[in-house]
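Annex B.
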Amino acid sequence: MPPQILASVITLQALHGLPAFETVQELRCGLRWKAACARGLHAMAFDPSLLA
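Transposase: predicted structure tokens.
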């Protein structure tokens, strides 16, 4: 995972107060989260253990 994407995800996670699993679910399904993290519509998310 590129560090700039991981930093964006961690920032969004902290802002929304979500646990790792829900954060990855948002990244998989949420169009706003994908746009904020510069991910394409069909980009794969990562395993929640990366955030733990």
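The chain is about 60% helix and 0% strand. The two ends are 15 Å apart (CA to CA). Further annotation is deferred to the next reporting cycle.
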